[in-house]
Amino acid sequence: MTTELYLENSYLKECESQIESVDGNLVILEQTIFYPGGGGQPCDKGFIKQGNTIYEVVKVTKKDGKIIHVLDRPLKETSPVTLQIDWSWRYQNMRYHTLLHVISGYLYQHYNGLATSSQIEKDHSRLEITFSAEIIDKIPFEQLEQSIKELLKQSYTVSTKIITKEEAEQKEGIIKTTVSLLPPSLKKIRIVQIQGIDEQACGGTHVHNTSEIGDFSIIKIQNKGATKRRIKLQLN
Ligand SMILES: [Zn+2]
Question: Do the strands 31-32 and 26-29 form a parallel or antiparallel pair, or are they unpaired?
Answer without folding.
Answer: unpaired
